[in-house]
Amino acid sequence: MPVAAPQDREPQRRTTSRWASAVVLVAGLAIGGGHAAYADGDPTPSKSDVAAARDRADAKGRDVAAVQADLIRADLALETAGDRAAQAAEAWNGARWRAEQARADADEADEAAETAREDVESQRELYAATVVQSYEDATQVQGLAAVVEADGIESLVDRTVTMGNTSDALNHQYDAFLASSAVADVTASTAAQASERAAAAEAEAEAAYDAAAAAEAAAGAEAQSVSATKADLIAELAELEGISVRLAEKRQSALEREAAEAAAAAAQAEAQAQAEAEAEAEAQAQAAAQGQQEQAEQEQPTPTPSAPATPTPTVTSTPTVTPTPTAAPTPTPPPTPPPTPTPSSTPTPVDTPSATPTPTAAPTPTQSPTTTTTPSQSPTATPTPTPAPTPAPTPEPAPTEPPTPTPTPPPTPTPPPVATGAAAAISFATAQIGEPYKWGAAGPSAWDCSGLTSGAWASAGKALPHYSVAQYTQSTKITAAQLAPGDLVFWGSSSNPSSIYHVALYVGDGQIIHAPRTGRPVSRESMYYWRAPNFFARP
């Protein structure tokens, strides 16, 4: 009978389950002191049966680990396919952006070429009119006709000058025509080259579109395959663990979530350690720069005995006191000219009375006669007292005070520029949470990664290209330690910015808003949910 055949071949799983039950039962007997009763017909398991059941349980454990490893490999395959799709999508965004730039350049070159052509036509018309005018003027100044028809020599001269002016105008118009023709040729050539570049860029964009579509289709197929594989693996895992498939799915989701959170925490800790190391290195560099500056400023005051030079003006002031010997001229006791009436005989006695006033100028009594003979030398006598005041400034080297201003140079760290409009960008991105991902989309109801960040900052009044690499290059580069809400975080496959293929909007507290990939809508999550970003910028 076809119905009896399946009963003769009982599945191995059921046998294994029965032996596992037997193991549990034996354990119960051991605990209960062996007083439990068996139903009629149930064989008593032997020691070998128990050992075999335990071996099968161990084999099940290895099978569970193998299934979990297969689940991990399936997730990795899905992630790899998503990476390829994201890279292809951003490659198309870049090719499309370059094509748009090239087409704009070509349009501008075409406008310049058209303007140049119009200028050539205008110069041609002016030149033709000048030629006609020159011919008409030339016919009026032809040999004898000019003399006969002229009203006089002045009229002839006027006609000759007019013809000369016409000839000059003709030459000028011809030069202008040649120049405009040359410009037209150059602009036409430039426009043609720009048009060729635009066409090449558009062809590249079409190829990139096809590649992105293929990568997205491959990622979608891989996602479906991985989903089916994971469903089978979870069903197998549920059977091995003796639980329902639904419970196994919940357990697997929880395990994957815990693993992602652990990986994110580890990546965040690593990024924080790196940021701290960078901040410490920067602080050390600033301290070294400050030390060098202080040392340089300490070296500067030593050669600045310019401070002692300042007392020298005081010395100059003392000579102003020395001019008091001008009181020597005050020996104008020449009011003693009454003795002078005895002129020749008493010149010497005149010196003796002059000696009597000199006691007033006790510092230089000998000098007084010289001053009487040559008053011009009295100033020469003034420099002689200058050595006396010079020792006075030397005890005043209070320039020891200049070291006090040296602590003045505190270097101020240059903070990165503050991004304006960050709140508006974050508000816009938050409003898009839950909307689907679609590669190449920039709203209003679907987004890709760079389309979302471009739309968010456009709402804040700042234009960013729909291309992650260009968003990075057109923004201010910052470090992870300098991140502030509204900044952009990027993921690249290498340390070269040209390898960037994903971008997200940083909202603070280690959180981002982004459009992850096909199958995952716009969401807010940890910046390290996936892997640590390696580029940061501020629009």
From TrEMBL:
Pfam families: NLPC_P60. Residues 302-311, 326-346, 382-418 have a biased composition (Pro residues). Residues 271-301, 312-325, 347-381 have a biased composition (Low complexity). Residues 419-539 form the NlpC/P60 domain. Residues 99-126, 191-218 form a coiled coil. PROSITE patterns: NLPC_P60 (PS51935). The keyword NADP does not apply. Keywords: Coiled coil, Hydrolase, Protease, Thiol protease. InterPro entries: NLP_P60_dom, Papain-like_cys_pep_sf, PG_Endopeptidase_C40. Gene3D superfamilies: endopeptidase domain like (from Nostoc punctiforme). Residues 271-420 are annotated as: Disordered. Belongs to the peptidase C40 family. This is C40 family peptidase.
